[in-house]
Amino acid sequence: MAAPRLIFADQLGPHFDDGGPLLMVEAVGVLGQRTYHRAKAHLILSALRHRARELGDRVEYLHAEHYRDVLAGRDLEVVDPTSWGSRALVRELGARVLPSRGFVTSEADFALWAADRPPSRLIMDQFYRQVRTETGLLMRGPDPEGGKFNFDHDNRQPPPKGAVNLGLPDPFCPVEDDIDAQVRIDLDRWQAEGRVHLIGEDGPRRFAATRAEALAALADFVETRLGDFGPFEDASLLGDESMAHSRLSVPLNLGLLHPREVIDAVVAAYETGGAPLQSVEAVVRQIMGWRDWVWHLYWHLGEDYVRRSNHLEAQVPLPREFWELDGSAVRAKCLSHVLGEVRRTGYAHHIQRLMVLGNWALQRGYQPAELTEWFTNSFVDGTPWVMPANVVGMSQHADGGIVATKPYASGGAYISKMSDFCGACTFNPKKRLGEDACPFTAGYWAFLDRVEPRIRGNHRMAQPLAGLRRLVDREAVVDQERARTQW
Ligand SMILES: Cc1cc2nc3c(=O)[nH]c(=O)nc-3n(C[C@H](O)[C@H](O)[C@H](O)COP(=O)(O)OP(=O)(O)OC[C@H]3O[C@@H](n4cnc5c(N)ncnc54)[C@H](O)[C@@H]3O)c2cc1C
Ligand code: SF4
Fold first, then answer.
1. Choosing a second label site near 250 at 20 to 30 A (CA), which of 131, 434, 463, 485?
2. Is the overall model pTM greater than 0.90, yes or no?
3. pLDDT tens-digit profile of 385-406?
4. How close is the Cα of 283 to the center of ligand 1, in Å?
5. CA-nearest residue, atom 3 of ligand 2
6. Cα separation, 206 vs 381, whole angstroms
């Protein structure tokens, strides 16, 4: 009899199933190793159990504390899993390992592309253009559709003036069932027994945990929000949790959807006149560009990338407000709101992760490795492979410029332009000194002051550093931010 294929919790879609016998393990001990967002733990268990119910007799479903407890000595096959730890495990178990799946490009494709490039020449946009050209996606012969590979210039608009939301229909929300009810009971029991440590609110479940739900979420995105995705990609409104974002990272990262399915759906919408190119290209770049890119970098940059990267010498431990997702204790409206949303849902859209949470952590010098762990555990779509390049590289510039050529630091003016947060805040984004000085604005200058020696050689930072040198109240701003206890 053929060895069963071990299916991990992020390999739940049809593209991980070739028709043979399957084996799944619900390992509570793995959930207990970290303090996870409760909605994330719920999603993983719900997705595993729904898949097992769908598969019926085709799957052997085992309960265990740890994988090894029930897998040691078994003959197994596996699609190469998605973390350094799980890859070591399946090799230790002697499983027959098939190449990984679930991304547009293969690890072999990337290895070939990266072979003659040093880390400083790994540029996402070049990789993306090559994949576009090779796949022919959004191409007219050798040329990109619309004459450009990138429509960022037309996108990145602020929210409509005076709007409290984008006026779009509510995004797809699944209907919970008996499996979700049982998951909640089990999580309560394990929490009471001290077997798991959870944070954040659980429920109602907001993200797809089954293939049918994932397809419904994709169709809903294409029909109701894709058109606005590009223009408002970087905008935030207090009254709009999702803006025009897809909320598909959860089903993508659970392996319920193949990224190519999402890309094909948005490209089909463009080709039938259902969505503008500027939005469709933006989604294709996020998925075929960024998502594949950070996946490949996870392997390419090595297992110790997070541990060894701290270019800006950031040593401040993450504060309690982050660990406890306690936005209520924070006065800065933008940060308070986003932390509160993460507590409530386990989700925040990209610009909130990058320009509010990441920017705040960068300015304050939070330890990149701690921050990576926090993001991984606190977000419903957090995975070991997605975080290193996004957090250490893009948002904290801790690798010194491999992922992003300059630190993504900005003051309150950017947040004020791209959101309605500042109007509801006790601080003033235009002020860097005084009682109501915005901690993002003042924090920006204090950050530049602290890291100046480390970024002096970066020509993209020449202008901000010239501004810092011209700042008449530089010392006072730095002293104020050093002494700031209330934010
Ligand atoms: C600090 C930080 C932390 C992040 N944490 C995560 C995370 O835990 N899990 C995660 O999947 N993504 C993460 N991202 C990337 C991105 O923010 C999320 O994928 C996105 O916000 C998920 O929401 P969405 O599905 O509505 O995305 P949309 O804005 O609708 O984008 C469509 C899809 O593109 C993909 N995508 C877009 N940008 C990225 C990126 N930079 N890296 C990888 N995929 C991308 C995702 O699959 C996403 O579903 C992070 C980015 C930053 C800067
Ligand atoms: S004023 Fe500053 S702290 Fe307040 S919401 Fe705006 S950017 Fe955030």
1. 131
2. yes
3. 999 999 999 999 999 999 999 9
4. 11
5. 332
6. 12
